[in-house]
Amino acid sequence: MLGAQFEYMSDCIFCDILSGKLPSSLVYQDDRCTALMDIQPINPGHVLVVPNSHATYLADLDEGVGSDLFSVAQRIATALRTSGLRCEGVNLFLADGEAAGQEVFHVHLHLFPRFDGDGFGFRVSAWLLEQTGAVRVGHDSSANQGSALNRRLILRRNNQPADRSPARGIDPA
Ligand SMILES: [Zn+2]
Predict the structure, then answer these.
(1) Looking at the annotation, which residues are catalytic?
(2) CATH topology of domain 13-114
(3) pTM of this prediction?
(4) What is the 3-state secondary structure (H, E, C) of the chain?
(5) Where are the domains of the chain?
(6) Distance 50 CA to ligand 1 centre (A)
(7) pLDDT tens digits, one per residue of 109-144
(8) What's the gap in Å between 32 CA and the centre of ligand 1?
């Protein structure tokens, strides 16, 4: 696959893919980065964009390559929206560090295809809950729970009346 000019790290799943040791479903590849399908997609069409040379964290990544990751992600996001998959929006997500949710320690930029009601969401931090005096109130399985809670938190921040709809919230962390 890629040539020896790239730096690979042992025990890195993306390096094993990039060096041809492991199979993958390639979406795109150039001399700086590669896009592939995630093997554990959060929605159909979940793509990862990774640098061809190993970089554990953003701080280890050449800034020019970082720009390329984003440029490629932009093009793939456009492609996803016209692919025929259900894709009404796209999230770009990059976890830099374990506390940020990084699980594979080779920089990777996720593209999550999104559609209304898909149930994917981010949880609000304990810090924000503390700052706003809001509480987590049960579980909302009807999707976009993060958005619903964020709206309520913003309302409280602005000292406006809280949303009068039945309490909705998110799972305890
Ligand atoms: Zn690697």
Answers:
(1) 108
(2) HIT family, subunit A (3.30.428)
(3) 0.77
(4) CCCCCCCCCCCCHHHHHHCCCCCCCEEEECCCEEEEECCCCCCCCCEEEEECCCCCCHHHCCHHHHHHHHHHHHHHHHHHHCCCCCCCEEEEECCCCHHHCCCCCCCCEEEEEECCCCCCCCCCCHHHHHHHCCCCCCCCCCCCHHHHHHHHHHHHHCCCCCCCCCCCCCCCC
(5) 13-114, 121-173
(6) 9
(7) 999 999 999 999 888 888 888 888 877 665 544 444
(8) 13
